[in-house]
Amino acid sequence: MKIRSIIILLTVPLFLVMASVNGALLYFQQKAEMSRALGEQALAAAVVTAEFAAEMEDPQQELAKPFRRQAMDAASRRIVGLQAIYLVDADGAAMPLTTDSVAWLPQPEAPVVKERIAPTMTETGGPRFVAAFAPAANGRFVAVRLNAEPMFAQIENIKRAILWIVLGASIFAAGLSWFVARLIERELRINGQSLAAIAADKIISGEDGLRIRETRDLADAVRLMGASQGAAEMRDRRVSARNDRTRTLGEAVLRSRALLFKPSEQQAAGARIAMRICGDAPPGAFFALAAAEEEASVVIGCCAAGDPVSALAQAAAARRFIEANWTAMGAENCMAVAREAYGIEETASVAWRSDEPLQPDGRLLCIADADVAVAAQRYISANSDATPAEWLEAIEILLAPSGIFGVVGASGSGDRSQSA
Question: What fold does the segment set 3-154 form as a domain?
Answer without folding.
Answer: Beta-Lactamase (3.30.450)
